C-alpha cells in the first residue's frame, strides 16, 4: 500500500512524520503548481470550489508517482465539504483510476474513533504506537506552525534582506529529507532558536494585517499566491487566523472535553452571525472583529470563488468595517485569477492603510 494525501500548506511534513513512524509507505504529491491546477480544473465540475480542483490535481500527480491509496478528509456540515469526498471518489473512478480511497472523517472530539481509523490505515492494533505517532506528528505540526508564524512576523523587520527566507527554506528542505518525527522535532527546535538570532530592526514602521477566510485559502500558499510573503515584502507584519495545528487540536482535544477554544471567536462574531453555516464563516467574522480590537491596521478575507460560507461572511464585512473602523479587503480566488491583478489590489490596499496610519500619527502629533 502506497498512501497519498492532498497538499494543504506544509501539512505534508507532519503527515509524512506520522506515516513514517507507523511504517507506512507514502507518496508525497509534487508541490502544487500550474500543472496541478490544470489537471484538477480539467477533470472537476466547473463551479466546484478551488481547493477541490487543486487537491484533485494532487491525487492525479501522486498516482503517476505510484500511489495506490488516497486518504481524503471528510466531514459533514452545511457547505460542500460534506460531499467533497464522494465527488472526488466519483471523478477518480470515472477517470479510470484503480485506487483505494479512505475517508478520514473529522473526529469531532472522538479520539478513540480517530485512533481506530488510523489503526486501519496503518494496519496495526498497537494502540501505544499509534497514540505516540499521532502525538509526535501533532508536535511536529504545532512547532512548524509556530515557525511559520515567526516568519510572517519577522520578515518585515529583517536587517539583512532574505535572511529569514534563507533560514526557513533551508529548514523546510531538511524536514523534507528527514525520516520520522524525532529528527523533524530536533530540526524544528533548532530552527526556532536560529530564527530568534536573526537581527531585526524593531524601530521600523510596519503595518499589521490579519488574514481571515476559508481555511484552505488562508493556509495554502500556492492557493493564496503566497500572500504572507507578498505583504511582508511590502513592509507588513502578517497574522493568519487559521492554522492546521489549531484545527486538529480543536477537533481532537477541545471538542472531546466539551469546550472549545473557538468560544472567544464565536462570541466576537455573535452580533453578526450566531450559528455555524459551514466552513469557517463564523470564524472569519469573529476574527475580523478581534483584529479590530487588537488595533490591526487592516484585514484581508480570502475566499475561493463560489465558496458559500465565505460569501455570507463577505456580506457582513461592510457593517464590520464601518462599526469597528477597520479597513477590510476581500480577495476572491479561482483558477482564472491572475497574479499581477491580485498584486495590484494588494498594493492599493496597503497604500490605503499606510495613508490612513500616517494621517492618524500626524493628527496625534498636532493635538
Ligand atoms: S468552505 Fe467554501 S471552499 Fe471550502 S468546501 Fe466549503 S464551500 Fe468549498
3D architecture notes:
This protein is an alpha/beta fold and 367 residues long. It folds into two domains: 2-125, Rossmann fold (3-Layer(aba) Sandwich), CATH 3.40.50; 206-366, 3-Layer(aba) Sandwich (Rossmann fold), CATH 3.40.50.11900. It is built from 15 helices and eight strands. It has helices at 12-22, 34-43, 50-64, 81-94, 111-122, 127-154, 163-177, 181-197, 215-219, 227-233, 244-254, 263-269, 281-293, 308-324, 339-366, and strands spanning 2-4, 25-26, 69-74, 100-105, 207-213, 236-240, 298-304, 328-333. Strands 2-1-3-4 form a four-stranded parallel β-sheet, sandwiched between helices. Helix 14 links the parallel strand 7 (298-304) and strand 8 (328-333). Helix 1 (12-22) packs antiparallel against helix 6 (127-154) and helix 2 crosses helix 3. The longest helix has 28 residues, at 127-154. It is globular, with a radius of gyration of 21 Å. The chain starts with a strand and ends with a helix. The mean pLDDT is 92. Bound molecules: iron/sulfur cluster (SF4).
How many helices? The count is: 15
Mean pLDDT: 92
Class inferred from helices and paired strands: alpha/beta
- Overall shape: it is globular
Low-confidence stretches: none
Strands in their spatial order, largest beta sheet:
2-1-3-4
Computed over alpha carbons, the radius of gyration is 21 Å
Q: Report the count of strand segments.
A: 8
How many strands, what sense, and barrel or not for the largest sheet? Answer: 4 strands, parallel
CATH topology of the largest domain: Rossmann fold
* Ligand inventory: iron/sulfur cluster
How much helix is in the residues? 55-70%
| Distance N to C terminus | 70 Å
CATH architecture of the largest domain: 3-Layer(aba) Sandwich
Oligomer: single chain
Amino acid at each position: 500500500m502506497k498512501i497519498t494525501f492532498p497538499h494543504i500548506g506544509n501539512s505534508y511534513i507532519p503527515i509524512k512524520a506520522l506515516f513514517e513512524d507507523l511504517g507506512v509507505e507514502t507518496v508525497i504529491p509534487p508541490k502544487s503548481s500550474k500543472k496541478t491546477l490544470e489537471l484538477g480544473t480539467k477533470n472537476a465540475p466547473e463551479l466546484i470550489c478551488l481547493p477541490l480542483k487543486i487537491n484533485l490535481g494532487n491525487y492525479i500527480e501522486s498516482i503517476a508517482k505510484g500511489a495506490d491509496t488516497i486518504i481524503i478528509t471528510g466531514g459533514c456540515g452545511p457547505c460542500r465539504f460534506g460531499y467533497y469526498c464522494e465527488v472526488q471518489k466519483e471523478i477518480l473512478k470515472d477517470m479510470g483510476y484503480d485506487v483505494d480511497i479512505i475517508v478520514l472523517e473529522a473526529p469531532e472530539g472522538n479520539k478513540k474513533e480517530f485512533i481506530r481509523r488510523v489503526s486501519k490505515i496503518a494496519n496495526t492494533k498497537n494502540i501505544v504506537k499509534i497514540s505516540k505517532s499521532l502525538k509526535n506528528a501533532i508536535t511536529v505540526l504545532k512547532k512548524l506552525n509556530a515557525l511559520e508564524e515567526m516568519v510572517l512576523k519577522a520578515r518585515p523587520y529583517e536587517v539583512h534582506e532574505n535572511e529569514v527566507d534563507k533560514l526557513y527554506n533551508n529548514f523546510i528542505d531538511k524536514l523534507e529529507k528527514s525520516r520520522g518525527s524525532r529528527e523533524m522535532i530536533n530540526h524544528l527546535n533548532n530552527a526556532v532558536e536560529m530564527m530568534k538570532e536573526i537581527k531585526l530592526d524593531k524601530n521600523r514602521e510596519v503595518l499589521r494585517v490579519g488574514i481571515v477566510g476559508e481555511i484552505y485559502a488562508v493556509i495554502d500558499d500556492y492557493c493564496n499566491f503566497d500572500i504572507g510573503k507578498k505583504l511582508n515584502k511590502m513592509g507588513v507584519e502578517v497574522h493568519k487566523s487559521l492554522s492546521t495545528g489549531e484545527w486538529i487540536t480543536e477537533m481532537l482535544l477541545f471538542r472531546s472535553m466539551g469546550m472549545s477554544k473557538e468560544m472567544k471567536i464565536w462570541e466576537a462574531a455573535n452580533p453578526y452571525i450566531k450559528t455555524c453555516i459551514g466552513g469557517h464563516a463564523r470564524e472569519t467574522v469573529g476574527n475580523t472583529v478581534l483584529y479590530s480590537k487588537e488595533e490591526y491596521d487592516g484585514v484581508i478575507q480570502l475566499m475561493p470563488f463560489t465558496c458559500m460560507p465565505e460569501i455570507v461572511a463577505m456580506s457582513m464585512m461592510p457593517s464590520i468595517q464601518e462599526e469597528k473602523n477597520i479597513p477590510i479587503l476581500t480577495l476572491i480566488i479561482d483558477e482564472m485569477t491572475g497574479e499581477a491583478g491580485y498584486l495590484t489590489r494588494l498594493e492599493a490596499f496597503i497604500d490605503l492603510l499606510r495613508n490612513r496610519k500616517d494621517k492618524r500619527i500626524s493628527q496625534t502629533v498636532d493635538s
